[in-house]
């Protein structure tokens, strides 16, 4: 198993989550987790606009509380938003009731049917409750690992180039851990994806 791609068993655990979109279409789905923050999100928005790319931002509710103008800017620029809990809470840290309260606290600000669990994990009961309440759980096909202190911007770009395939859901982060690498890696990744003929899409 590569860290950059999810293990097969995870797809079995959450079988109705979105891991990859239609492999028969030359399209990718860019996603950004953990924002919005002023140190990262504006640069990402400007870079996406340069390449005519749309993306989905999975936002932490407390960041939206602090920077509501950034959420509105994401929407104004034609991107989608998703719920990433209010406090970036891992599912195994809370019982189902408390976890869902945290999700709903974020949704009071976000108003979205898209959800991605922080760190990609949640209890099965939480997963089923999210589905029952109408959330579309979005996972990923490629993790760029832009957050890793062990990787360079060139490594992040290589992860995109090595693992992307038609229908890939690609995960970046609009976070302090990622932004220094993304200032170099993101424009080059978008340019490479466009040169490969990929269309940039968002979730319905």
Largest sheet: 6 strands, parallel
Number of helical elements? 8
Approximate helicity band: 40-55%
What are the segments in which pLDDT stays under 50 over at least 5 consecutive residues? Answer: none
How much of the residues is beta strand, in percent?
Answer: 5-15%
Overall pLDDT? 95
The helix-strand sequence is HEHEHHEHEHEEHEHE
Find the structural class using helix and strand composition.
alpha/beta
- Bulk shape: globular
* Name of the CATH class: Alpha Beta
CATH superfamily: Glycoside hydrolase/deacetylase
Number of strands: 8
Q: N-to-C terminal Cα separation, in Å?
A: 30 Å
CATH architecture: Alpha-Beta Barrel
- How many whole angstroms does the radius of gyration measure? 16 Å
Could you please say which CATH topology applies here? TIM Barrel
Count of discrete domains: 1
Can you put this structure into words, describing what you see?
- This protein has a single domain, classed as TIM Barrel (Alpha-Beta Barrel), CATH 3.20.20.370.
- Helices cover 41% and strands 14% of the residues.
- The strands form two sheets. Strands 1, 2, 3, 6, 7 and 8 form a six-stranded parallel beta sheet that branches. Strands 4-5 form a two-stranded parallel sheet.
- The model has no long low-confidence stretch (mean pLDDT 95).
Write the layout of secondary structure elements.
Elements: H1 8-13, E1 27-33, H2 41-50, E2 55-59, H3 61-66, H4 68-76, E3 80-83, H5 96-110, E4 114-115, H6 124-132, E5 136-137, E6 142-143, H7 153-163, E7 169-173, H8 179-195, E8 199-200
Parallel strand pairs: 1-2, 1-7, 1-8, 2-3, 4-5, 6-7
Helix pairs in contact: 2-8, 5-6, 7-8
């Amino acid at each position: 198993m590569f860290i950059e791609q999810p293990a097969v068993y995870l797809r079995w655990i959450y079988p109705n989550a979105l891991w990859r979109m239609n492999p028969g279409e030359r399209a990718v789905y860019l996603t950004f987790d953990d924002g919005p923050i002023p140190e990262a999100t504006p640069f990402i928005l400007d870079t996406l606009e340069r390449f005519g790319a749309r993306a989905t931002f999975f936002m932490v509710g407390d960041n939206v509380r602090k920077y509501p103008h950034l959420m509105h800017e994401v929407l104004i620029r034609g991107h989608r938003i998703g719920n990433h809990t209010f406090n970036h809470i891992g599912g195994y840290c809370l019982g189902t009731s408390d976890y869902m309260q945290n999700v709903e606290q974020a949704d009071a600000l976000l108003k979205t049917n898209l959800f991605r669990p922080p760190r990609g994990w949640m209890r099965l009961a939480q997963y089923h409750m999210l589905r029952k309440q109408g959330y579309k759980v979005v996972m990923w096909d490629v993790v760029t690992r832009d957050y890793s202190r062990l990787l360079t911007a060139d490594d992040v770009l290589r992860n995109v180039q090595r693992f992307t395939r038609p229908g890939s859901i690609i995960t970046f982060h609009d976070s302090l851990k990622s932004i220094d690498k993304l200032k170099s890696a993101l424009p080059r990744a978008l340019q490479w994806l466009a040169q490969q003929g990929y269309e940039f899409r968002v979730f319905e």
